[in-house]
Design goal:
This protein is of the alpha/beta class. It has helices at residues 3-18, 22-26, 42-51, 73-86, 115-121, 140-151, 162-168, 184-190, 217-229, 231-241, 259-269, 288-298, 345-360, 362-372, and strands at residues 61-66, 71-72, 90-95, 101-104, 108-110, 113-114, 128-131, 155-158, 176-177, 195-196, 202-205, 208-211, 276-280, 304-308, 314-315, 321-322, 334-335. α3 (42-51) crosses α9 (217-229), α4 packs parallel to α9 and α9 packs antiparallel against α10. The two termini are 24 Å apart.
Length: 380
Amino acid sequence: MRRRWFLWIGLGLLALMAGGASAWVATLPPAPPPPNPPEISPEEQAATLSALKPPKRARPLVAVIGLNDATETTDYLMPLGILRRSGAVDVVALSIRPGPVRLYPALQVKPDATAADFEARHPDGADYVIVPAMSRIDDPDVLAFLRRQAERGATIVSVCAGARVTAEAGLLDGRRATTHWWYRKGMLKAHPGIRWVADRRFVVDGQVATTTGVSASMPMSLTLVEAIAGRERAEAVAADLGLVSWDGRHDSSAFRFNRPFALTIVGARATPWSHEDWALSPGAGVDEVALALVADAWSRTYRSRAVTLGAAPIVSRSGVRILPDRRADGWTGERLPAEAWNRRPAEALDAALAEIAQRYGARTANVVAMQLEYPRRWAS
């Protein structure tokens, strides 16, 4: 999701309250109960894995497409990092145009190639195309690329609000799908032919898959590994990530616009003097998945943002070239310690949320988790 959209929400709520509309906030629902997702049958799980089998190559080729202006941080880096560490696929990080991909709300990377370069080298197309959330859903070059790849037999995997991009390309018409909770109504209004599926963290319909918000890219990526390389390989990767399960269970009712969420954003926007920049100084070989989750979380508090320091591109564990935002010379602000991202990714996210709660309060940690659509117990 674009961070500035939530900024405008906060400013709008602040203006409403200043104008005597605080009663409106009182009408919002309270914090939802803890998530209680329904079980998924073995038959449904088997059907999902069958639908995600490699459509063409024995060793699949995966393209992760990014819009240069702004592509969601975790949506782009999580599938790329997880699939590469599986050793079962070839993954190419793409930009739609030449130049870096600016990720939001934090980090920027140098892609491996442009979409045009990829298509010139692979005229038969990818096996899978990962579509992250992007700052614009109607970029004509992105939409044309997705249509061509689908026509060439690729399975399109949309992460989070990347479903809106896939929908704009016409690839979700008549299909079952999901997306980030914030965008559900808008996507269904714009594309009434989509058949919404609740209580699933990811949905597969034919050669198109969609997920709920940001954090769902982890179980989706592991499910892809399982479909491609088997359960044992997926279990090994999951252990490396710090997970024991990765099925599609989800409680959609736990993610909604609510009173604590609104009031926390209003409070944060009303005290801009207290906002902070947190510096990250990752070294070569950094786990790009853990780094993405930490940078993403600390940049969604409405009280802080993460910036990377360094003098040259940093090559991550899976070969992602991360471009520093600024040099370390003269930095006098706050720094996140290296142990923040030197953990297994799932543990790094949980630790980041705990540290955010300690510094800014439990409700701020809940605001971050709600944006990431990450299941946890909510503060009232």
